[in-house]
Amino acid sequence: SYISIIKVNIPADTVALCYHLADQVMQNPQVLAALQERLDNTALTPSSYIETLPKAVKRRIDALKQLQVKCAHIEAKFYEEVHDLERKYAALYQPLFDKRREFINGEAEPTDAESEWHSENEEEEKLAGDLKNVVVIEEKAEAEEINVKGIPDFWFTIFRNVDMLSELVQEYDEPILKHLQDIKVKFSEPGQPMSFSLEFHFGPNDYFSNTVLTKTYKMKSEPDKTDPFSFEGPEIVDCDGCTIDWKKGKNVTVKTIKKKQKHKGRGTVRTITKQVPNDSFFNFFSPIKVSGDGESLDEDSEFTLAADFEIGHFFRERIVPRAVLYFTGEAIEDDDNFEEGEEGEEEVRCILYLL
After folding, report:
1. What dihedral do alpha carbons 244, 247, 248, 253 form, nearest 10°?
2. Cα–Cα distance measured from residue 353 to residue 76, given in angstroms and rounded to the nearest whole number
3. What confidence tens digit (pLDDT) does each residue in 220-253 have?
4. What is the pTM of this model?
5. How far apart are CA 159 and CA 326, in angstroms?
6. What is the pLDDT of residues 141-168, one digit of tens each?
7. Any idea which architecture 42-109+149-246+285-337 has in CATH?
8. 11, 118, 218, 342: which could join 238 in a potential S-S bond, CB 3.0 to 4.6 Å?
9. How many CB atoms lie within 10 A of CB 101?
């Protein structure tokens, strides 16, 4: 190899000026303090500090990392048992959710004891009730005429109230969602790979013949072999949808467009029709598949899949367990207050089962 030396002639007065400026800078206390702080910060970075440690100390640090990996594997087992507990308690919740479904769909009427509820504005409501008694006869007559069954548009109202869901719903989805009667969460059985399924139960409608649409989320609760320290609990790794048996001309996930084609030789023009994908909530049941051969997804697909996982998790953790509060909007107000309280603070995860 060769070393090239380039000689540059710099005027003596320029060199003198540079030395003079450097001398002035070094005599400035603020500049010196800033330089010292910069040097201190550079010297105290964790990686540079570790490099300065004796070999025997580094060896002990490596041993600590081995222990940390073992801790991660124990933590993974902990989350597997949490999943088992969720399955156990889901069975205890289900009778209450079944009764909720009956009240929503008008299959049963709550008793006076079941419908008794003391709100924070009870006195105001009592006063309003007294005023209503003035026209009680008219109201009873009107109620008999309307004869409302259950709680109309219960689940559809939740979709409309929750921003994460309303963004997915198109105008032509709305008549279909008004037939939604229940949403259930089912957990994988003991001994099976960790997963959970969302079941959307629909009443008879003019759009598809399915009574239940399902979405299954597959999960993994084990540290990554290449990066075990990144483990923070179970994560969704893939999901499966279902086939919707659309009735003729009712598939809202596609639209028909007309396109003109010109023959290259004869110059004649013909019009063809073709179906193209259409934005719809019901695309939720046709998710992007994670490649099993390790092939990476493009950025848009990764974003879509991540959003899908977030929605599935939200249904499971929030919507299904607390449906009435999302219907009334109380849960949404709580969520907003929680987000405002977190602003500017470090996020602390205290919940056992967060993705």
Report:
1. -40
2. 11
3. 888 888 888 888 888 888 899 999 999 999 999 9
4. 0.73
5. 9
6. 555 556 889 999 999 999 999 999 999 9
7. 2-Layer Sandwich (3.30)
8. 218
9. 19
